[in-house]
């Protein structure tokens, strides 16, 4: 098994032991530490901890925010790992974003018009999107890994490579990272996010496949 935890900037297992209801956050166990905990935000926009498995339910008006800090050390090499469920495909839905407007950064989202998942990166020029070949189904668990090496963005669904898009430049920024919505509090996710991790290196195809297998084994951890 590939153990990314000690190398991940952010690792949000979203289990009950990381659920901090008192302070309204889910704790980061990656090397970025508590500065990169996922905050729930206002009560009206707070996702609900799932009681039967890891993760949080997002009802179409919820989001989490990971405040930018020194732990976000990637520039032109990174991987984003996500496990999620879509409960609605009626509109565009952001799963993760660390980008504002047309600035440098990345986005992971579902697009209603094409019925695909996207991993978008912007290195300071024209943004490029690696688009999934998979048309996701409602209620099904998916893992998505997006990698960027300073030259191309790659998207993997359920451990398998699907597509790539060319892009160059640094995608580092000082913007907060959002889960379940974009930074403008729009395009909310209706579904669940069961895991999120971020690294400052490019995962290999073998590591991506291992991530998918290991997460499926751990799906029922609460």
Report on this model:
The protein is mainly beta and 222 residues long. The chain has one domain (10-41, 48-217): Jelly Rolls, CATH 2.60.120. Helices cover 6% and strands 38% of the residues. It is globular and about 40 Å long.
Q: Give the CATH level 1 class.
A: Mainly Beta
The third-level CATH topology is Jelly Rolls
Into how many domains do the coordinates divide?
1
Order of helix and strand elements from N to C terminus: EEEEEEEEEEEEEEEEEH
Calculate the mean pLDDT score and round it: 93
The helix/strand class is: mainly beta
Total strand segments: 17
User: Helix count, per DSSP?
Assistant: 1
CATH architecture field: Sandwich
Low-confidence stretches: none
């Amino acid at each position: 098994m590939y153990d990314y935890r000690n190398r991940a900037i952010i690792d949000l297992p979203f289990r009950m032991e990381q659920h901090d209801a008192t302070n309204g956050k889910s704790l980061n166990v990656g090397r970025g530490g508590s500065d990169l905990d996922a905050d729930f935000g206002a009560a009206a926009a707070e996702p609900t901890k799932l009681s039967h498995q890891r993760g949080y339910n997002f009802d179409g008006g919820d989001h989490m925010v990971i405040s930018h800090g020194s732990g976000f050390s990637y520039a032109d090499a990174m991987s984003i790992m996500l496990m999620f469920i879509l409960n609605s495909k009626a509109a565009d839905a952001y799963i993760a974003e660390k980008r504002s407007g047309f600035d440098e950064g990345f986005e992971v989202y579902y697009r209603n018009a094409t019925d695909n998942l996207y991993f978008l990166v912007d290195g300071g020029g024209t943004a490029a999107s690696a688009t999934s070949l998979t048309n996701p189904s409602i209620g099904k668990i998916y893992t998505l890994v997006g990698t960027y090496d300073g030259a191309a963005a790659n998207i993997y669904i359920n451990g398998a490579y699907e597509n790539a898009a060319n892009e160059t430049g640094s995608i580092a920024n000082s913007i907060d990272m959002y889960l379940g919505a974009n930074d403008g509090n729009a395009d909310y996710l209706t579904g669940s996010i069961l895991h999120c991790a971020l690294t400052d290196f490019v995962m290999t195809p073998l590591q991506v496949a291992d991530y998918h297998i290991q997460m499926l084994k751990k799906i029922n951890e609460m």
